Amino acid sequence: MDGIDHYKRAEEIAQRIADGRVSDYDKQALATIAQVHATLALTAAQAHATAFRKQLARANGIDLDAKTKAAPKYVNLLDDEDM
Questions:
Q1: How far is CA 44 from CA 23, 26, 38, in A?
Q2: Residue 80 dihedral angles phi and psi, to the nearest 5°
Q3: Which of 6, 61, 64, 80 has most Cβ atoms within 10 angstroms of its Cβ?
């Protein structure tokens, strides 16, 4: 299944619950399964967006892996001069 399939399955299950086509006993289990499918759909979308971002950067001549982030600046809040 890809992300779109997971999304569709989550919608189908949620609609089935909303229509009342399941017993009260099954509602909780099906709601959990729908949530899992929705989470997998979001994860797939994020992975796809990340891959797209990297492809777009590469197409524009930008090497995302070569960029380095500046080291964070640490501030000493217990400096002796302030006491």
A1: 31, 27, 10
A2: -65, -30
A3: 6
> Is the CB of residue 38 less than 8 Å from the CB of residue 7?
yes
Q: What is the pTM of this model?
A: 0.65
The SS3 of residue 62 is coil
**Alpha-helix residue ranges (DSSP H) falling in 1-83:** 3-18, 24-59
d(CA 1, CA 13): 16
User: CB 42: neighbour CB atoms within 10 A?
Assistant: 14
Q: Burial of 13 by CB count in 10 Å (0-12 exposed, 13-18 middle, 19+ buried)? A: buried
